[in-house]
Design brief:
This protein is an alpha+beta fold and about 290 residues long. It has 7 helices and 12 strands.
Length: about 290
């Protein structure tokens, strides 16, 4: 669960973020409808990617209009508005609005995560399902191809493809790395990937190359729903390394859905077991920050 921002009026910030998210989403929807009716969104602010980042002391506000830009271009409905509020570098308020789907995901530190302001996340709650005992088998695995398409064996594209195959291959295949996941999904939007993991629709999301404005809102929503977020890259001692939270600006993310307990382990233990099984099957990605 995200940490509270003690001196800030989070209720007021949350309400404002929801209001702005809804308004921006309606503008996106209007632009899409103009395209459907034969008009053009070219030259309009709604049809473009708009990124703002404002900083004041320990507060960051990260906003992205049209997260899933390629989706919007092709009228694939997985595009959204994403608004994240960070306090001391920690996502504290998150709003994701997908207007074409009429899905509004919201979260505020300490108050849970919600779909359309009425349905608490994850969707299945009584009880919340534990992670599969043989995860990643029986899991829905979410991943993205990304924009780095350089065709060389040690490039990110090839590393991702080999990792995807490891996760999908039959148990015992790929020199023991076959994960036999139930299915592989790509929504084309990091924000929507995180929201669907928070819902429990995805069990695992693994990705590299995103920026703060892609993930800040989704991280808040995921963590308030009870999900776990850590780094995508497997550490040298993946079976014993302490599983730490991913840095918002780290560009490498592995998310596990909210999980309940069973007779053998707690929900957190099941999530951490799944993290280690994913780490065993994926390759490290190379996404640095400019100037770092």
């Amino acid at each position: 669960m995200t940490a509270p921002a003690a001196s800030l009026d989070l209720d007021e910030i949350y309400s404002f973020a929801v209001q702005i998210g809804k308004a921006a989403g309606e503008r996106l929807l209007a632009a899409a409808q103009r395209r459907i009716s034969g008009g053009s969104a070219a030259g309009s602010e709604e049809g473009k990617e708009v990124v703002e980042k404002e900083k004041e002391n320990a507060v960051d506000i990260v906003t992205k209009v049209d997260e899933g830009t390629v989706n919007f271009t092709h009228l694939f409905p997985m595009f959204c508005v994403s608004i994240g509020f960070l306090f001391n570098h920690k996502p504290t308020v998150g709003v994701i609005y997908a207007p074409f789907l009429n899905q509004l995901f919201t979260a505020c530190a300490g108050k849970g995560a919600w779909l359309n302001e009425t349905q608490r996340l994850p969707l299945v709650r009584n009880p919340i399902p534990p992670m599969p005992t043989n995860a990643p088998s029986r899991c829905i695995f979410s991943c993205e191809w990304g924009k780095d398409r350089i065709d060389r064996p040690e490039g990110n594209l090839h590393r991702k493809v080999r990792s995807f195959i490891n996760m999908a291959a039959e148990i015992g295949g790929r020199d023991g790395k076959g994960g036999m996941v139930h299915g592989v999904r790509s929504l084309g939007s990091a924000a929507m990937d995180l929201a669907y993991t928070a819902m429990g629709s995805f069990d695992i999301w693994w990705e590299g190359g995103c920026w703060e404005w892609d993930v800040a809102a989704g991280i808040c929503i995921l963590e308030e729903a009870g999900g776990l977020l850590t780094t995508a890259n497997p550490p040298a001692e993946s079976e014993t390394t302490l599983i730490e939270e991913a840095r918002v600006g780290g560009r490498l993310y592995l998310a596990i859905r909210p999980a309940g307990s069973d007779n053998s382990e707690s929900g957190r233990e099941g999530q951490e077991r799944t993290v280690r099984e994913v780490w065993r099957r994926v390759e490290s990605l190379d996404y640095s920050r400019p100037g770092s």
